[in-house]
Each structure stands twice: as structure tokens, then as C-alpha cells.
Specification:
Number of domains of chain B: 2
Oligomer: heterodimer
Largest sheet of chain A: none
Mean pLDDT of chain A: 78
Number of strands of chain B: 2
Number of domains of chain A: 2
Number of strands of chain A: 0
Radius of gyration of chain A: 27 Å
Shape of chain B: globular
Distance between the termini of chain A: 31 Å
Chain lengths: 314, 501
């Protein structure tokens, strides 16, 4: 940040605020050049901040005063909004009372009929994957759109004109391939974590858990394996192709299955997926399969985020 | 239930499922797949409009075996069908018009991810148009927010693009948080997320005067959040850089479609959730009126000062969003209808401008400075003509949508009476004058002879781009000439959209 500071009189925090609110070409350029780039070029842009040759003390005083004014107004606004929101929260209907407006026919049906209508012992799974499955379909696509965005922003390719920053390349060379303690613990923990994640996913309709939480556990296990044994070994079973194949199959299955269930539901047709015997592993209609799909997407996306941030590819 | 009533479901799920497939296809196939799906959605929306418009009927569509309020629900009527047709058509034409630039701007191994983003954006927009549930709104707002970031940053993943995407994310994430807070408070007060039960619960609350402060927060927070996302004047700081650094397809979609999607949600919140009477009582519409008026003037003033053509167009977007908020702030049926007509006209004209300015820049040695565009219209006549048409529409020349919507806004203001009338008329006049100054200056500049000769190495924009520019121009002209029937259709749609005013 030292380099960014020196061409105007502002410090980094003030430059950041100014950049956020007004735009600042010099800072954009500095961001563009990255950390290992040559010193900044003179900027031809007309919006670049003019640099006063010898700052006139009156002007500096005025600038400082306006900055203070700015900070004071911002603080006042923040405190004001915080006060209003806190007062709002205090004025809300009391939590847990019988006459609370949220205690209406909606949760009543979820609680009373949820088990027999969805077949899911875990009522939450029945709510998010059956009653309100459309929202959850959107939610799993939030993860997918984030993954696509990270791919667009970070994925590098040979001949792309980009290269790995030197620090990252060195880090990849000196990965902990011979760290015995880490590797021993990882070889103990990774199978356990994977099994546990799988259990949480598969029992999502029977016990607390489900695709999102179980998928995160599995993703964490994969990341631990990668951290301990390096990319060469991890790439034997997980590459960009794996990531794409798993996400497209899981998301495609999810969308098609729910399209079927939305369509039959809206038209009053019976669904071939019936609740079954509550409590059995294969019960609750589509819910276990949807949990598996969500779990796969979440695990793959977690792992892909890690590797994309680490070396610009999966 | 007749089969055509499943069109809303298909317009959401086709792009959603297609996006997953597009992300694994090779670049060329992914582009074609995206175009095919957008064509299908556009055709479906057309069919839905034909079905719903004559009797002006709206219907609810339960999502799953459990009806509302236990499950999710869609609702479609003439206005929804019109918006869906507008959004899918403009997305399709933006993609076609910017296709060649897309291939230059985005490296081939990122293009399929970009196509997936476009499809997800389309699915989210359709969900916003059709949904009848507040939480679904939030989920798909999240998708739109992240996809918007990719649209901005995809051209240059370093430098200006990244910086403007970061600024966009900061503003939009604050807005998302406010929206979520508003929805949570709504649920706390009413116990529902589905729009109609919320409305039924809010009306007695307002009449009894209980929970006055939380009720105000419930109204103010979503409106504020959507105003930030639609880039209403004091919250517009992310707009100029974001539109200027995106690839033409991205800029056309962001300005023409994405911020309009948020406006449709806002319309839904005002008309279907909170109800106009409660909004008026809380004084929110006057706030919208004032900020809209300020945006109309300030956006134009800033546009006048720009030296880069794309930034100028982006600033003019800020002004045009001000017009829409002014119409909403008038709080009459005529005002809302005029705002919607302006929304449609602006969506077509602004995407036309963003798509046509790129061939003009390419014919002038790829420079964005205004002086560099001297004579660009003579070097790229089709793009020049399209740019001229779009600029004239924004200025408000008769037979173009800008003219009709400005006249309808003025009429709505005249019918309103009081201070609002004079304020609205003065601001309309001033803003139109400023529009003339900066838009006609640019139009005259691109048609005046001189400037650098055409570089033969620069390829022509290609038939696809010309086709898309021609279709968008035709849409502009059609909206302008058939404004009467369109306005009638908007009124009929508004009547079944929510609680009428």
C-alpha cells in the first residue's frame, strides 16, 4: 500500500473510501498491476486525481475538514440507523408467545402433518426439500452461480497470457509432501470425515443434517487430503472434468426431478415418489436423492473454490 | 390446468437446468445452446402474453403438491407475460448483438461458464417476474447479484473490470442484507412469506396502528434495498464503471434487463405485498418522487460532463431510472403505467445504445473518447443509425418510446395536482433539455465528417450484430408507434397485478 499512498496526500483507508464512493483510476491501476508488477506508469486518464505540486496549507486544511465532516456524517447515519433498527427489533411481537403472528396455520401443518405428507422424520428436510423445494432449488443454484463466477474470475490456462504469481508457484513447489505428522493425521481423519459427511447426507431425512451440511464436511475432508498430499495425488481422482461432470449431473437431476414434481403437483397428478415408511433409509420420496445431489454439488464446489483460489485451476 | 399455464414454470426451469449443461459444453456449443434456450423462453413468453392478454386474466400456479401458503407459488398475468417477453427478448438480442465481441473479450475456456451465467441470470429474472413469494424473491436476487458480478468482471479479470466489480459487490451486498432484513421483519410481523397473506395481515396492522415502527421498517427496508440495486440516484456510484468495463452483452443486459428486474420486484412489493395505500400513508412514495427527480437531473448533468462515450451512456441510465422512480412516486395508476412504459422503452433503447456503440468504437481505432468517435457513423453506418435511433428515443422524439413515456409521465403529473405537478414538469423539462444536449452532441459528432479513416484490419461487426441492432430498432419503433395499445395492456395488467390503486 506504500506505493499507492505516495501520489496523493491520502492514506490507504481514505483512498479506499474514495475509491468506493467516487472511483479512482490510480488505485484501479494499482490493483490491476498486482503485487509483483513494475512501478505504476503515469496515468493518461482525465479522471485521475490531480496531484498538487506543493500542497497549499489552506487547501489541505479544507480537505481535512471536509474529510472530518464526511466521517462524522457517516458515523451519525450509522448510529441513527442502528438505533432505529434496535428499536424496531425491540418493538417486534414477543418471541414464543402463543399470539405471535408466526404461530399460524403454516407451521401447524408442517408440525402436525409433515411426517405423513413428506415421509421425512427430520421435519426441516421435509420443509426445505418438499414443501418449499423451489427456494432450495434456487439456493443450490446460488452455489453454482458462485462457482461459475469464481471460474470466470480465477481460472487460468496455459497460453492465456497469465501466469501464476511467483509466490504461489513456489508454494506449489514446496508443498508439504514430506510432512509426516500432517500426512499421518490426514490419513486417519480424511476417511472418517468422508464417512461422517456421507452419513449426514444419507440420513438427511432421518436426523438433523442434509445435503448442505454433509456436503461441507465432505468438501473439508477433500481439502484436508489436498493440503496434506499435494495436487499430484489429489488430481488422480479429482480434476476440473470431475468437478464439471459431478455438478452438471447433480444439478441437472435436481432440476429435472423437481420439474417433474412441480408439474405433477400443479396439475393434481399423483407423483411416483411416495413418502414410504417414515424412518426407513429409502423413504420420504425424492428427499434422500435430492440430499445426495445437493451434497455432491456442495462438496465439489467447496473443493473447487479452494483449488481455484490456490492455483487458478481445479 | 391447461398446458400453457406451465409456461412460467418452464421459463424458469429450462434456463436453470440448461445452465448446468452449458457449463460443461465446449464454447461454441454452449453459445448456441444459450441462444436456443433464450429463443424458447422468448417464444413461450409470447404465447403466454397472447393467452393472458385478451381476457386480462391472471392465474396462480402451485409449485409442488402442497399449495400456498405451505408451498411456493407462481403467479402470471398480462403484465408478467409482457415483462417476461421484454426481458427474454432483450437478453437474446444482447447476446446475439455482442456475440462477436464476446468471443474476443472472453477467452474460450471461460465462455461456457459465461453462458451458464447468462442462463442463470435469465432463470432468476423469470423467477422474479413470476414469483408470488417473498423468500423466493430473495433467493433469486442472490443469483442475480452474483451473476451481475460475473457479467461486469468477465471482460477484464484484472484492473478496471475487477475494481468496478468489487465496488458493485459492496453496494449490492449491502442492499441484499437490507432486503433480507426487510423480509425477516415482514415474516415476524405477519407470519407469512407468500405475498397475498402478507398483504391481508398488513392492512389491519396499519389500521390499528399497532407495531408502527416495525411496519415502517418493513416498508422502507425492501424499497431502499431495491432502489440501491436498481441504481436510484444517490446509490448509483457503482454504475458508470460497471457498465463501462463490461463486455457489450454484459453492459446491455445489466442496464436493459437486470436493473429492470429489480424494478419489477419493487412494483410487486408496492402493489402486491404492502399495498399502495399503506405505502402512501408511510410517505415512501414522496421519498421515491424526490430521489427520482434528483436522479433525473444529476444523472444528466454528470452525463454531460463525461468524455468517454460508454460512461456517458451509463450516466444517462442513472437519469432514466430517475424517470421510472418519479412515475412510481406519483402514486397514481397513470404514474405507474407511465413508469412501466418508460421501463420498457428504456430497456430497448439502452441495450441498443450499448450494442451499437461498440462497432462505432471498433471503427474508430477502439477508443472510448468522445472526440475519437468523430465520423464513426460514416465508417459503420448500420451501427451509427442504430445509435442515432436509440439516442433519439432517450431524448424523446415523437414515434419513439421515450416521447410517449415522457408525455404520459407529464400527463400523470398534471392529473396529480399540487406541488408534485410543478416539480415533475420542471424536472422533466430540465432533464429533457440536458438529454438533448449530451445525446444530440454525440449523434452530431458521429455523423460529422473527419476523424481517423477506417482501419481495414478491423472486421465488420457481422450479420448477427446487424440483425440484433435491426430487431432492437424495430422494437423501439414498434413500442413508440403502438404506445396506445401497449399502455392499455399495461393498465389491464396492472389491474390484475395486485391491489389496484
Amino acid at each position: 500500500m506504500a506505493r499507492i499512498r505516495d501520489d496523493t496526500g491520502l492514506n490507504a483507508r481514505q483512498r479506499f473510501l474514495r475509491w468506493l464512493l467516487e472511483g479512482d483510476d490510480a488505485l484501479d491501476q494499482a490493483l490491476a498491476d498486482g503485487l509483483d508488477a513494475p512501478p505504476p506508469r503515469p496515468l493518461p486518464s482525465p479522471r485521475a486525481v490531480p496531484v498538487p505540486a506543493a500542497p497549499d496549507p489552506g487547501q489541505r486544511r479544507r480537505e481535512r475538514a471536509s474529510r472530518w465532516l464526511y466521517v462524522c456524517i457517516a458515523l451519525l447515519l450509522c448510529v441513527g440507523i442502528m438505533g432505529i433498527l434496535l428499536r424496531t427489533a425491540a418493538d417486534l411481537p414477543a418471541f414464543g408467545r402463543a399470539d405471535n403472528p408466526t404461530n399460524n396455520e403454516v407451521p401447524a401443518r408442517y408440525i402436525e402433518k409433515g411426517l405423513q405428507e413428506t415421509g421425512a422424520v427430520n421435519i426441516v428436510a421435509g420443509m426445505i426439500l418438499d414443501y418449499r423445494a423451489f427456494d432450495t432449488l434456487g439456493e443450490s443454484n446460488v452455489l453454482f452461480v458462485a462457482a461459475c463466477t469464481v471460474v470466470i474470475l480465477l481460472r487460468l490456462q496455459q497460453g492465456d497470457g497469465h501466469r501464476l504469481p511467483r509466490s504461489v508457484a513456489e508454494e506449489l513447489t514446496w508443498e508439504p509432501r514430506h510432512d509426516v505428522i500432517l500426512q499421518t493425521m490426514a490419513s486417519l481423519l480424511v476417511p472418517l470425515a468422508l464417512m461422517f459427511g456421507l452419513y449426514v447426507v444419507l440420513n438427511g431425512h432421518l436426523s438433523p443434517g442434509g445435503g448442505f451440511s454433509g456436503g461441507t464436511v465432505m468438501g473439508a475432508a477433500l481439502i484436508l487430503y489436498l493440503a496434506a498430499f499435494g495436487f499430484e495425488k489429489a488430481e488422480r481422482f479429482f480434476t476440473f472434468r470431475t468437478f464439471r461432470a459431478v455438478s452438471v449431473c447433480a444439478l441437472g437431476f435436481y432440476a429435472l426431478a423437481k420439474a417433474y414434481s412441480f408439474f405433477t403437483g400443479a396439475n393434481g397428478l399423483p407423483s411416483v415418489f411416495t413418502p414410504g415408511t417414515p424412518g426407513a433409509l429409502f423413504s420420504a420420496g425424492l428427499i434422500p436423492y435430492l440430499n445426495i445431489a445437493v451434497g455432491l454439488v456442495v462438496a465439489c464446489t467447496m473443493y473447487a473454490f479452494f483449488t481455484l483460489f490456490r492455483k487458478g485451476d481445479v | 390446468m391447461p398446458l400453457w399455464q406451465s409456461i412460467p414454470l418452464a421459463s424458469i426451469l429450462l434456463p436453470l437446468a440448461g445452465a448446468a449443461l452449458a457449463s460443461v459444453l465446449p464454447a461454441r456449443a454452449a453459445r448456441r445452446w444459450t441462444v436456443l434456450l433464450l429463443c424458447l423462453v422468448t417464444g413461450g413468453s409470447c404465447l403466454l402474453l397472447v393467452r393472458t392478454l385478451p381476457g386480462s386474466t391472471a392465474f396462480n400456479y402451485p409449485m409442488g403438491h402442497f399449495g400456498a401458503p405451505w408451498g411456493n407459488e407462481l403467479r402470471a398475468g398480462p403484465l408478467e407475460a409482457m415483462m417476461a417477453l421484454l426481458f427474454s427478448g432483450i437478453s437474446l438480442l444482447s447476446l446475439l448483438g455482442g456475440m462477436r465481441r464476446l468471443q474476443e473479450d472472453i477467452t474460450s475456456h471461460r465462455q461456457s461458464a459465461f453462458c451458464a451465467i447468462l442462463l442463470l441470470m435469465q432463470a432468476a429474472l423469470m423467477a422474479q417476474v413470476y414469483t408470488n413469494d417473498l423468500f423466493t424473491v430473495y433467493v433469486f436476487v442472490e443469483i442475480m447479484t452474483i451473476a451481475g458480478c460475473a457479467l461486469i468482471a468477465s471482460r477484464s479479470t484484472r484492473g478496471r473490470g475487477l475494481a468496478s466489480a468489487a465496488r458493485y459487490m459492496v453496494m449490492n451486498l449491502i442492499a441484499s442484507a437490507l432486503l433480507l432484513l426487510g423480509i425477516i421483519l415482514t415474516y415476524d410481523l405477519t407470519g407469512h412469506l407468500l405475498m397475498e397473506p402478507v398483504q391481508k395481515a398488513i392492512l389491519p396492522l396499519q389500521q390499528s396502528g399497532a407495531y408502527a415502527l416495525p411496519l415502517t421498517a418493513v416498508i422502507a427496508l425492501p424499497v431502499l434495498a431495491l432502489a440501491i440495486k436498481a441504481a436510484l440516484f444517490p446509490f448509483h456510484t457503482w454504475v458508470p464503471d460497471a457498465y463501462a468495463s463490461a463486455t457489450p452483452t454484459g453492459a446491455a443486459m445489466l442496464s436493459g434487463v437486470v436493473c429492470k428486474g429489480y424494478l419489477v420486484v419493487l412494483l410487486k412489493v408496492i402493489f402486491r405485498v404492502i399495498t399502495p395505500a399503506v405505502v402512501l400513508d408511510a410517505g415512501i412514495s414522496d421519498v421515491l418522487f424526490c430521489f427520482g427527480a434528483a436522479g433525473m437531473v444529476m444523472g444528466s448533468v454528470h452525463a454531460l460532463r463525461q468524455t468517454e462515450v460508454k460512461r456517458m451512456i451509463a450516466w444517462s441510465s442513472v437519469a432514466q431510472i430517475g424517470y421510472i422512480f418519479l412515475g412510481l412516486g406519483l402514486h397514481t395508476e397513470a404514474g405507474a403505467a407511465a413508469a412501466l412504459l418508460h421501463l420498457m422503452g428504456h430497456a430497448a433503447a439502452k441495450s441498443l445504445l450499448f450494442l451499437s456503440v461498440d462497432p462505432l468504437m471498433a471503427a474508430s481505432g477502439r477508443q472510448g473518447r468522445l472526440e475519437g468517435l468523430r465520423g464513426a457513423g460514416l465508417r459503420a453506418p448500420v451501427a451509427g443509425a442504430a445509435f442515432t435511433l436509440g439516442a433519439l428515443s432517450l431524448v424523446g422524439i415523437p414515434f419513439l418510446p421515450g416521447f410517449v413515456s415522457k408525455v404520459s409521465l407529464a400527463r400523470a403529473a398534471l392529473a396529480y395536482g399540487g406541488l408534485h405537478t410543478w416539480g415533475a414538469l420542471a424536472v422533466l423539462a430540465l432533464s429533457t433539455l440536458l438529454n438533448v444536449l449530451y445525446m444530440l452532441r454525440t449523434v452530431l459528432l458521429i455523423w460529422s465528417p473527419g476523424g481517423s479513416p477506417r482501419d481495414p484490419a478491423v472486421p465488420s461487426p457481422g450479420p448477427l450484430c446487424h440483425l440484433s441492432l435491426g430487431l432492437l430498432s424495430a422494437a423501439c419503433l414498434g413500442l413508440g408507434c403502438l404506445a396506445g395499445p401497449v399502455l392499455e395492456a399495461i393498465r389491464a395488467g396492472l389491474a390484475v397485478f395486485g391491489i389496484p390503486l
